[in-house]
Write a structure and sequence with these properties.
Blueprint: E1 3-11, H1 21-40, E2 44-49, E3 56-59, E4 67-70, E5 78-87, H2 91-97, E6 107-113
Antiparallel strand pairs: 1-5, 1-6, 2-5, 3-4
Length: 122
Protein backbone atom coordinates (compact mmCIF):
# COMPACT_ATOMS: atom_id res chain seq x y z
CA UNK A 1 0.00 0.00 0.00
CA UNK A 2 1.44 3.42 -0.91
CA UNK A 3 2.66 5.73 1.85
CA UNK A 4 2.16 9.46 1.93
CA UNK A 5 3.90 12.17 3.90
CA UNK A 6 1.69 14.92 5.27
CA UNK A 7 3.63 18.13 5.88
CA UNK A 8 1.80 20.38 8.31
CA UNK A 9 2.32 24.10 7.83
CA UNK A 10 1.01 26.85 10.07
CA UNK A 11 0.36 30.51 9.32
CA UNK A 12 2.79 32.38 11.57
CA UNK A 13 1.08 35.70 10.85
CA UNK A 14 -2.13 34.60 12.60
CA UNK A 15 -3.00 36.15 15.95
CA UNK A 16 -2.72 33.33 18.47
CA UNK A 17 -2.86 35.70 21.48
CA UNK A 18 -6.62 35.18 21.82
CA UNK A 19 -6.15 31.49 22.64
CA UNK A 20 -6.32 30.53 26.30
CA UNK A 21 -4.30 27.67 27.81
CA UNK A 22 -7.55 25.68 27.76
CA UNK A 23 -7.93 26.41 24.03
CA UNK A 24 -4.43 25.07 23.40
CA UNK A 25 -5.18 21.93 25.44
CA UNK A 26 -8.34 21.35 23.39
CA UNK A 27 -6.43 21.83 20.12
CA UNK A 28 -3.71 19.42 21.27
CA UNK A 29 -6.44 16.91 22.11
CA UNK A 30 -7.83 17.26 18.58
CA UNK A 31 -4.41 16.49 17.07
CA UNK A 32 -4.04 13.48 19.38
CA UNK A 33 -7.54 12.23 18.53
CA UNK A 34 -6.87 12.47 14.78
CA UNK A 35 -3.59 10.56 15.20
CA UNK A 36 -5.28 7.94 17.39
CA UNK A 37 -7.96 7.43 14.74
CA UNK A 38 -5.31 6.89 12.05
CA UNK A 39 -3.46 4.50 14.37
CA UNK A 40 -6.66 2.53 15.09
CA UNK A 41 -7.27 2.20 11.33
CA UNK A 42 -3.71 0.89 10.84
CA UNK A 43 -2.75 3.87 8.67
CA UNK A 44 -0.28 5.81 10.83
CA UNK A 45 3.40 4.95 10.37
CA UNK A 46 4.80 8.13 11.90
CA UNK A 47 3.55 11.34 13.43
CA UNK A 48 5.88 13.96 14.90
CA UNK A 49 5.78 17.61 15.87
CA UNK A 50 8.97 19.49 15.05
CA UNK A 51 10.70 21.19 17.96
CA UNK A 52 10.68 24.95 18.27
CA UNK A 53 14.45 25.01 18.82
CA UNK A 54 15.54 25.95 15.33
CA UNK A 55 17.68 23.59 13.33
CA UNK A 56 20.42 23.57 10.74
CA UNK A 57 20.43 24.33 7.02
CA UNK A 58 23.04 22.66 4.83
CA UNK A 59 23.88 24.34 1.52
CA UNK A 60 26.35 23.24 -1.12
CA UNK A 61 29.55 25.22 -1.42
CA UNK A 62 31.58 25.23 -4.61
CA UNK A 63 34.79 23.25 -4.29
CA UNK A 64 34.50 22.27 -0.67
CA UNK A 65 32.45 20.92 2.15
CA UNK A 66 28.92 22.28 2.50
CA UNK A 67 28.04 25.36 4.55
CA UNK A 68 26.05 24.62 7.70
CA UNK A 69 24.09 27.53 9.17
CA UNK A 70 21.49 27.98 11.85
CA UNK A 71 17.92 27.94 10.66
CA UNK A 72 15.44 27.70 9.23
CA UNK A 73 14.21 31.12 10.15
CA UNK A 74 10.60 32.18 10.00
CA UNK A 75 10.85 34.61 7.12
CA UNK A 76 7.67 33.55 5.41
CA UNK A 77 4.01 33.33 6.27
CA UNK A 78 4.13 29.57 6.79
CA UNK A 79 6.35 27.33 8.88
CA UNK A 80 6.52 23.52 8.94
CA UNK A 81 5.36 22.36 12.35
CA UNK A 82 5.12 18.60 11.96
CA UNK A 83 4.84 15.57 9.72
CA UNK A 84 2.90 12.33 9.42
CA UNK A 85 3.47 9.26 7.27
CA UNK A 86 0.23 7.47 6.39
CA UNK A 87 -0.77 4.44 4.38
CA UNK A 88 -3.48 5.21 1.82
CA UNK A 89 -4.80 3.70 -1.40
CA UNK A 90 -3.89 6.71 -3.55
CA UNK A 91 -3.59 10.52 -3.47
CA UNK A 92 -7.34 11.05 -3.34
CA UNK A 93 -7.65 8.68 -0.38
CA UNK A 94 -4.76 10.41 1.42
CA UNK A 95 -6.46 13.78 0.91
CA UNK A 96 -9.76 12.41 2.25
CA UNK A 97 -7.96 11.14 5.35
CA UNK A 98 -7.01 14.77 6.07
CA UNK A 99 -10.69 15.77 6.36
CA UNK A 100 -11.25 17.21 9.81
CA UNK A 101 -7.55 17.49 10.66
CA UNK A 102 -7.17 20.38 13.16
CA UNK A 103 -4.18 21.82 11.29
CA UNK A 104 -6.54 22.97 8.54
CA UNK A 105 -7.82 25.62 10.99
CA UNK A 106 -4.33 27.16 11.23
CA UNK A 107 -2.60 26.46 7.95
CA UNK A 108 -2.25 23.83 5.28
CA UNK A 109 -1.31 20.19 4.77
CA UNK A 110 0.90 19.18 1.86
CA UNK A 111 0.36 15.57 0.72
CA UNK A 112 3.24 13.80 -1.04
CA UNK A 113 3.62 10.14 -1.97
CA UNK A 114 6.83 8.49 -0.78
CA UNK A 115 9.04 6.94 -3.44
CA UNK A 116 11.16 4.07 -2.16
CA UNK A 117 13.78 4.77 -4.83
CA UNK A 118 13.91 1.21 -6.14
CA UNK A 119 14.18 -0.36 -2.71
CA UNK A 120 11.57 -2.45 -0.95
CA UNK A 121 8.58 -0.66 0.52
CA UNK A 122 8.90 -0.41 4.27
Amino acid sequence: MPKFMLVLRADVTADYSKFTPEDFQQILGEYEAWGARMMAEGRLDLGRKLTDQGGKVIRPKAGGSPDVTDGPYVESKEVVGGVYVLKADDYEHAVRLCDGHPNLRFGSIEVRELDFMGGPEE
